[in-house]
Amino acid sequence: MRRHTAIESPVGVLTAVADDDGLCGLFMEGAAHRPPSADFGERADVGFEHLRTELDEYFSGERQDFTVTVSAVGTPFRRRVWALLRAIPYGQTRTYGDLARDLGDPGAVRAVGGANARNPVCIVVPCHRVVGADGSLTGFAGGVERKLRLLALEDPTRATATLF
Questions:
Q1: Is residue 81 situated within a structural domain?
Q2: Whole domain around residue 54: which residue ranges?
Q3: Is 12 inside any structural domain?
Q4: Which residues are catalytic?
Q5: Which of 4, 63, 118, 133 could form a disulfide with 57 if both were Cys (CB 3.0 to 4.6 A apart)?
């Protein structure tokens, strides 16, 4: 049974959605590919304490990896891409091409981009760490400004980066 809560964050209100297996969604307000609210289940502010703590630690610079259980639903290809996203170290980035090569299919760049765009668990599954081949801040469902904020949080040298 799905349930959800709202969590205040420096990048706006996040809607966390969980089922019996774990966290299945973490969505920014106004993000592309955000499901309708009716899909989130009933409001339940209890049961999200561990996620709230980890997000607070992340945004204060104390946490680099999340331990919450993720139960995102997707095709086998998307789940493989999302697993690669979780392996990108804090403060680092990879390109869509890097991920396609890691999957063993260098021609799958667009498919990797599609899977990245439909990542249902933002921040915890760090799709914001994927950039264009030239390092540009392309394609983030939560908006490029939020992507820059997350990358600058993880690597303060990016705080002076310009948006492409």
A1: yes
A2: 3-59
A3: yes
A4: 127
A5: 63
